[in-house]
Amino acid sequence: MNNHLKRIANSYTVAVSVALLSMSALVLPVQAFEGEVQSFFHGDWEAACDNTHTCRAVGYHNPEQKNAAGEYRPVSVIFTRAAGENAKVKGKVKFGALSFGMEAKQTQHNDTITLSINDTYQSVLAPELPAYQEKGMSFSGERELTDNQVSELLKALTMKGRVSIKFGSSAGDEWYLSTKGSTAVLLKMDDFQGLVETPFAIVKKGQASKGIVKPKQAPVISIPAQPIPDTTAADLALVTNADFNQRIRTALNNACDNVPTEDQPLELEIARLTSNKLVVSTMCWSAAYNYGQAVWLVDDDAEIEPVLVTDSAVSYANGVIDEFMRGRGVGDCLSARRYIWNGSEFVLADSYTTGACREIAPGGAWYIPTTVSTVINGVDPAAGIDCESKQAYSTQGMVKCAQRELASLEWQMSEQLAEIERFSHAEYNTKADKSREAAAAIAQAQQAWRTFSKSECKAQQLSAAEGSMSLPLFVGCQVDLTQKRLQQLQLTKQSLMY
């Protein structure tokens, strides 16, 4: 949770307490920031930092280390630390759900698992956390490590000499975490965040205090309030226009390997973006289990050259370009990027990987972002405010930052609703009446939720004591209920997908 949300959550709790007592007697400029993305790989470990300067270190099993039966059990640990001095290191562990060349094995939800370090330190792990979604992907099977478990693991992973880190289940299964490369990767994470030789380092501690990297606010992307124009018949007719085709063919020759010969027609997809600009895409390259489409921003003025946005897209729709790649055929490691139209250009909104190809889970072990952003529709409610700074400490700053978070949740919710409608339509693709009924039911349910949330938050606001906490209480309530609604919609989408 962001700092401003923690502050408003605290205010929310205080205001609720006050209310209960009274009953018994509250656009920043966008860049890609690719230059700030830092990563490092060594041995069985890797580190990656995103554009807010939050870093993650991930370790895996050693695939060459096998048990008596000639098997190895996949396991992975992730450590996450925000930038800044005295930032807490958080940790989670996950056990493999895939196994190649043998029967798949995975832990049961109720298995008791014990962490053992050098057979001297032992500690029972917490139960599995609930499954969750990030960027449309599902993640499950994660167990949160306690502060003590994180501390003992970090000591062991940076210890000289032979170290054994074992996880054992009540069913008799064992997983071994590799230390190969751990010290180098954790040192590099310290380096990325300017913590080497400071009291806050994991590896090389000291008394220095200069050069510590500060946390940075995620860039805000404001999507234009005006809707994207409809693609006209005249726009679509450009597919067969000789001059237009030659214009795109020239751009294709400059960007792609997969170029049809002159006697072969181009397979173009055309969509209107603004009153004078089109988005044009076509296949650019293909490989064994990945492919990429080139996407250009094309001006209606033929004198202006098409602008290449990416050569690795898998889809474009409504001002959003997505890239998605598998690291190998089995799909146990992925990477993705998303570009969003902000009214003047396509900007990189997010990018992530799911870690190394280590047979941890379908799709990959973890959500490891390298670029993050806050996407909202229309004007930024907290324009000009750095919500990671002291600007957010005042009541006004706190409320505005929470309103920005609420606007982002609203945008995420609109995306989920669009996906639900698409999957519902696919389910009834031969039954138009059923499809319309499903769409109407979705819209009705959403309207009912909006009525409920507005009424609930207004009631809580009115029940609070008068003063500066009234508005924070109302906005905090909205954020809380919208987060819960978003989770409900994600579960609904999952039920339609599988």
Automatic annotation (TrEMBL):
Residues 1-32 form the signal peptide. Residues 387-489 form the Lysozyme inhibitor LprI-like N-terminal domain. The keyword Signal applies. It holds the Pfam family DUF1176. Transmembrane segments: none annotated. InterPro entries: DUF1176, LprI-like_N. Keywords: Signal. The keyword Nucleus does not apply. It comes from the Bacteria. This is DUF1176 domain-containing protein. It comes from Shewanella pneumatophori. The lineage of its organism: Bacteria, Pseudomonadati, Pseudomonadota, Gammaproteobacteria, Alteromonadales.
